[in-house]
Amino acid sequence: MGTKSYYPEEVKWKVIEMKKEGISNDEIMKQLGIKNRTQIKTWMNWYRTGQTYRFSQQVGKQYSYSKGTGDLSEVEQLKLKNKHLETQLEILKKYQEIERSWSRKSL
Fold first, then answer.
1. For residues 21 and 81, what is the distance between their CA atoms, to the nearest angstrom?
2. 19 near 31, Cβ under 8 Å?
3. Which of 12, 85, 6 lies closest to 42 in space, CA to CA?
4. Which of 29, 51, 56, 65 can pair with 46 through a Cys bridge, CB separation 3.0 to 4.6 Å?
5. Is 29 left (phi over 0), alpha (psi -120 to 50) or beta?
6. Exposure pattern of 17-48 as b/e (b: 16+ CB <10 Å)?
7. Tell me: the pLDDT tens digits for 57-97?
8. For the purposes of burial, counting CB atoms within 10 Å of the CB of 77, is it exposed (0-12), middle (13-18) or buried (19 or more)?
9. DSSP letters spanning 10-71
């Protein structure tokens, strides 16, 4: 079996930002030194399902200890929630932008 790689939380958030900008998985892997494309897909899935608390957990601890946001202080929970809501807002703005461009093309 291979060894597990540890990526800091900042790298995981950078991946999310880069994916939102439309950068390919291969480019992200090259720029950030990520070894496996599946890792990017996992982080994106966690992000989409609101499980961003997993970004701060140690390798292998997500499943064995089932630690969620309840283990974080109230301030840390609010910071995570704020970051999640800000990202959702960015996605909605981009969606509206795309929708407007489609409606302009159909005219």
1. 21
2. no
3. 12
4. 51
5. alpha
6. ebbeeeeebeebbeeeebeeeebbeebbebbe
7. 776 655 434 445 556 678 888 888 898 889 889 888 888 88
8. middle
9. HHHHHHHHHHHTT--HHHHHHHHT-S-HHHHHHHHHHHHTT-GGGGGSPTTHHHHS---GGG
